Amino acid sequence: MALDPAISARVAHLWDAHVLQLLSGEVEGVPPAGPVVVEGVAREDGSIPGPGGDIPVRWYRSTELAADALAPTLVWAHGGGWQFGDLDMPEADSVAQRVAAALPGVVVSVDYRLAPAHQHPAALEDVLAVQRWVVDHGAEHGIDPRRVALGGASAGGHLAATAALALAGEAEAPAALWLAYPVTDPDGGPYDGRHPDCPPVLWLDHLGTTKLFEGYLGDDPAGADPRIIPARGDLSVLPPTLVTTAECDSLCPQARHFVGLADAAGAAVEHHHVQGVLHGYLNIVGEEAIADAALDRHVAWLRDVLIGS
């Protein structure tokens, strides 16, 4: 299948863009999108104690909720190759607003420490610390500690998966797990060859992913920490899990493989495959109908698991 026409039009502007310009939102001829504001969602910046100091977070709460209601909640980690991204990128801010409104509930977006300044296990420790704190102290902030899900996109999906495996059996283990186009085995893959409709600059291949992962690992070689490769963990301990993939994405095969492994291990896993989009499609939520429709479907799954149909 070809790229969705709206996505293809965006790609046409990016043939000669440098990948770092793209990640920073400063591609020539394609100005960064303005912030998406979703009505009915209150936002507040804050922090949560972590092993490396206070971890910046952003709280999102649906204004439909009663003041004293204990709400279903998603702890969310953005993507960016373990080295880029922040709370303002659409994959963090726009997604969090829409999820909070649609549940309705709360989203806690995590500004985890980034490599290379902070290498493994800094980012994982931050995600773990926020998940634990939200479950342990969430009731004081209108959160139902029994209904705290964990999720992330791309590298954030990798962190969410490794955190969920690390928390298995603990009181703070997530009630559900959402992995959006995740990295599940950076070294082993498998990876897809480049889609013909996608320019090389937008295609994160095996070599590119490995270089980013090595920057995250630093001096800690892959395999030294058994948590580092989710696909090689004990997937039978996963909570109800949703894995979402993009058609035009080199990471799609390894995410599909992860789904198969989780299913074979006995985990309750669901797979949403989004055709016609690139890796990172959650960054165009609020701008393209195809991304909005995909997110609506993902949130419906989350709502069903945390709240019930």
In short:
The protein contains 8 helices and 8 strands. With 309 residues, the protein is an alpha/beta fold. Helix 5 (155-167) links the parallel strand 5 (143-153) and strand 6.
* Percent of residues in β-strands: 15-25%
Instruction: Give the helix tally.
Output: 8
Estimated radius of gyration: 18 Å
Estimate percent helicity: 25-40%
Q: Distance N terminus to C terminus?
A: 32 Å
Number of strands: 8
Strand order, biggest sheet? 1-2-4-3-5-6-7-8
Structural class: alpha/beta
Report the order of strands and helices.
Answer: HHEEEHEHEHEHEHEH
Biggest pleated sheet: 8 strands, mixed
Mean pLDDT: 87
Outline type:
globular
Low-confidence stretches: 12-33
Describe the structure.
The protein is 31% helix and 20% strand. The chain is globular and about 50 Å long. About 7% of the residues have low confidence. It has 309 residues and is α/β, with parallel strands linked by helices. It starts with a helix and ends with a helix.
Write the layout of secondary structure elements.
Elements: H1 5-12, H2 19-24, E1 41-48, E2 55-62, E3 71-77, H3 93-102, E4 106-110, H4 122-137, E5 143-153, H5 155-167, E6 177-180, H6 206-217, E7 241-248, H7 252-264, E8 269-278, H8 289-306
Parallel strand pairs: 3-4, 3-5, 5-6, 6-7, 7-8
Antiparallel strand pairs: 1-2, 2-4
Helix pairs in contact: 3-8, 4-5
